Task: inverse folding
């Protein structure tokens, strides 16, 4: 871990703390990137700006402690620039945000290089970044644009007076000088004085002045100005009135709003909300022109950042061990329940009550332990704004990304594994699904395409959807490509069946292979990954309307609701989610096909029958179909009837890994420990169904 | 426990080394006596009927629940065709911890733990009775007994034991 850096301070070996620093720095960078992407340059939330500044500052502090000079230098530049922004001394612009994003990327590389010992970013690249950041510090970059925009202005009249010993006419000059920050101030000299005299009246002392009038052309509202002036002068001595309300000549969508660079900090928070009601358009400009930033009502307080104070870092193995132990507890409790069930409930009433309570407590403990590993989907969704932004820019498309249900929770292990498939799906949407802006307009669609990521709970599963409003899957193209490849397809296949073709390896209808996608190696990997997680993928699509891909995942990796079945002496567990029903077949329902195998007729459908005894290679007790049980399984490949000796019961079982000490067994997805302490195998339903359906290929 | 095993692995190359690595657990298969490094042995249990694994070789009896962990059980007598594979009250299962995996092997009986000094260990001749001599690290002599010393980790992890996916790692 140690790079031999100049980390010694006071003789303490700091290299042991490097890993913590890297972890935290990467977290800060992640948070910073998310905030930057969310930043609305027009109405930046000051809390967000502060958070970004703090992130850079923390990284700088840590890097300095460990003597990582290159990181310290870069973060120092970032900090300096952003300090100006958050103090409203500098304009926030898209360029600035881009520069910061680039710096964040560079920092990530530098941190990774330090941690893993690889090639660090070249010194020239870092220097170039520093120069780029420093360029923003030039005052010229600041708010000269404010004047360039035609904005709505009010003309207000200020009347100072009456004057007396405590309030002299001269003191008004000082006030007026300060007011210049709001806009152009002109004194309206009384008729007998010089006509249209600008600025102060030179002969102030000549006459006892009753009052002084000024006219100011400003963008702020009357009440804002009044508020401002009350700080400077006695409110009783000033009257502000609106002479001319501004015509709403403002633009609709203001370009990146620079804060007027030359304005000095007034130290006031001007309420921009109290604008004259008939000028909705000027609201945006007035806000921007105001030298201060509105404090939004904590809307984007960013749960992840705020939770610093109330969370503890725990290593994942510890959590896993805790969950393991809870799993053991569940098994032990099941064993007790099973043993006790043989005793007389009346005689041992107290015992049974205790066991019932134990069961409740155990279930609650199990849920609580499971929830430790649950994290909100935002952890998976957080990287997509960046991905969409970069890829869309590369492809020349305009895209909006919506995320819904970011708070939906999912097991940490699954979140890590779902990110790659999701990224692939999003890139596919961007590349193949969404059309170019011109094409969209030509079709009568909105110019900007939309990609929506949505997550929600459904029953015992979580559903994650990736949808776009692009051109949809093209049935004809897919069919022709499949035929080209010699796949067994027919024109009469349903839409669903055609969409599933895109999951076949090497399948791509892309005309051009881009470096984003089109090589055809993605979708099959996506489906496989999701199936390995115990999930399934479904596609819905309508031509020219859009496509929606739904991923359904079990909520947890470790606990399974299953039906136990018996073959011979062995017990097997079938995950409940795959069972659609079970029945005892009548003789007339069973028949054979061309000597290849048996089928059973269930409500008109013919389902292939496979015997569990055959699959696992043992002798079943029951040979006659009518005396056994058929369990109807449904999975991606289709429906199958599994023949077993008997149904034993329904249990919630803790999944134990078979592969940690053995190897992968075909047809078995794991093992569990039953109430009597024996091991039972959990059936890999997808494999079982796949067996039968390869024996009965669909008619071409 | 894992940490100790890792340290032991780092310290003890298969076969002869100083100190603790010279302690061997001896067991019988048929008429032959074998010795394995004591540090690879996690525990010794009596035999309980394992849950069979679908379509596995005959010498892999199945898996058992060892205090919450699923452990495969291999019958060495079947694998190497020595003795008769009986399962009675005296049948012993040696639970091994090799290469980070927990595996059990059924043997006829377990004898004792013997410390062998360097000169008590002779190189083994090149013919093999039941299995490949690449797993035999030497022959130990204690009083009248000849112990066939095996690199049990190499053996368990080899491809033909079919316990691991792929070849020896």
Result:
């Amino acid at each position: 871990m140690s790079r031999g850096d100049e980390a010694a301070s006071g003789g303490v070996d700091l290299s042991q703390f490097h890993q913590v620093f890297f972890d935290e720095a990467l977290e800060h960078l992640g948070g910073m990137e998310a905030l930057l992407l969310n930043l609305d340059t027009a109405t930046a939330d000051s809390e967000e700006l502060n958070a970004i500044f703090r992130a850079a500052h923390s990284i700088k502090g840590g890097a300095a402690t460990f003597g990582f000079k290159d990181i310290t230098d870069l973060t120092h530049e970032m900090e300096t620039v952003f300090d100006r922004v958050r103090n409203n001394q500098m304009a926030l612009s898209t360029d600035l945000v881009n520069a910061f994003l680039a710096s964040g990327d560079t920092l990530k590389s530098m941190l990774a290089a330090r941690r893993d010992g690889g090639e660090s970013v070249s010194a020239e690249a870092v220097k170039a970044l520093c120069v780029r950041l420093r360029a923003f510090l030039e005052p010229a970059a600041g708010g000269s644009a404010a004047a360039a925009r035609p904005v709505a202005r009010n003309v207000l009249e200020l009347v100072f007076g009456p004057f007396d010993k405590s309030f002299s006419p001269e003191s008004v000059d000082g006030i007026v000088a300060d007011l210049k920050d709001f806009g152009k101030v002109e004194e309206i000299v009384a008729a007998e004085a010089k006509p249209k005299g600008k600025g102060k009246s030179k002969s102030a002392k000549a006459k006892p002045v009753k009052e002084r009038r000024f006219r100011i052309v400003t963008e702020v509202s009357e009440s804002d100005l009044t508020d401002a002036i009350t700080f400077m002068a006695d409110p009783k001595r000033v009257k502000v009135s609106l002479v001319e309300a501004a015509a709403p000549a403002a633009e609709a969508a203001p370009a990146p709003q620079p804060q007027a660079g030359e304005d000095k900090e007034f130290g006031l928070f001007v309420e921009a909300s109290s604008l004259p009601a008939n000028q909705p358009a000027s609201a945006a400009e007035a806000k921007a022109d105001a030298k201060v930033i509105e404090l939004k009502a904590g809307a984007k307080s960013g749960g992840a950042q705020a939770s610093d104070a109330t969370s503890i870092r725990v290593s994942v193995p510890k959590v896993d061990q805790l969950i393991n132990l809870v799993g053991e507890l569940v098994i032990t409790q099941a064993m007790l329940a099973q043993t006790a069930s043989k005793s007389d409930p009346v005689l041992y009433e107290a015992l049974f009550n205790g066991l019932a309570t134990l069961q409740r407590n155990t279930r609650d403990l199990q849920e609580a332990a499971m929830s430790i590993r649950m994290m909100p989907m935002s952890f998976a969704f957080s990287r997509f704004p960046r991905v969409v932004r970069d890829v869309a820019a590369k492809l020349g498309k305009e895209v909006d990304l919506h995320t819904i249900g970011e708070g939906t929770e999912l097991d940490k292990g699954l979140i890590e594994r779902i990110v790659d498939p999701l990224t692939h799906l999003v890139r596919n949407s961007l590349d193949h699904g969404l059309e170019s802006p011109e094409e969209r307009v030509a079709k009568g669609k909105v110019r900007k395409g939309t990609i929506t990521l949505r997550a929600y709970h459904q029953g015992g599963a979580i559903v994650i959807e990736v949808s776009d409003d692009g051109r949809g899957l093209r049935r004809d193209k897919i069919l022709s490509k499949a035929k080209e490849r010699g796949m067994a397809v027919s024109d009469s296949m349903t839409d669903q069946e055609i969409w599933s073709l895109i999951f076949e390896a090497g399948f791509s209808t892309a005309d051009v292979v881009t470096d984003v996608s089109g090589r055809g190696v993605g979708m099959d990997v996506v489906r496989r990954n999701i199936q390995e997680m115990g999930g399934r993928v479904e596609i819905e699509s309508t031509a020219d309307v859009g496509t929606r891909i739904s991923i359904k995942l079990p909520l947890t990796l470790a606990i399974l609701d299953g039906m136990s079945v018996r073959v011979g002496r062995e017990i097997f567990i079938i995950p409940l989610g795959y069972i659609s029903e079970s029945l005892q077949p009548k003789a007339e329902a069973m028949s054979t096909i061309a000597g290849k195998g048996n089928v059973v007729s269930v409500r008109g459908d013919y389902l292939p029958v496979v015997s569990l005894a055959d699959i696992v290679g043992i002798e079943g007790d029951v040979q006659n179909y009518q005396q056994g049980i058929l369990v109807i399984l449904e999975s991606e490949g289709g429906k199958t009837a599994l023949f077993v000796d008997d149904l034993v019961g329904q249990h919630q079982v803790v999944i134990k890994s078979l592969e940690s000490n053995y190897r992968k067994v075909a047809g078995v997805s794991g093992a569990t420990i039953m109430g009597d302490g024996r091991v039972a195998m959990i059936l890999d339903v997808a494999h079982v169904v796949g067996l039968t359906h390869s024996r009965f290929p669909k008619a071409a | 426990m894992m940490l100790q095993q890792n340290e032991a692995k780092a310290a003890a190359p298969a076969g002869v080394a100083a100190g603790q690595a010279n302690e061997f657990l001896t067991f019988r298969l048929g008429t032959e006596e074998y010795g394995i490094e004591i540090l690879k042995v996690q525990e010794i249990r009596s035999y309980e009927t394992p849950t069979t694994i679908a379509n596995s070789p005959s010498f892999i009896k199945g898996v058992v629940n060892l205090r919450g962990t699923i452990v495969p059980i291999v019958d060495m007598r079947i694998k190497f065709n020595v003795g008769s594979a009986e399962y009675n009250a005296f049948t012993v299962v040696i639970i091994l911890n090799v290469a980070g995996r927990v595996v059990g092997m059924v043997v006829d009986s377990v004898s004792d733990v013997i410390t062998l000094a360097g000169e008590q260990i002779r190189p083994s001749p090149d013919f093999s009775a039941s299995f490949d001599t690449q797993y035999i690290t030497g022959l130990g002599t204690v009083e009248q007994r000849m112990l066939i010393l095996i690199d049990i980790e190499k053996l368990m992890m080899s491809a033909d034991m079919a316990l691991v996916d792929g070849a020896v790692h």
Summary: The radius of gyration of chain A is 35 Å. The longest strand of chain A covers residues 449-458.
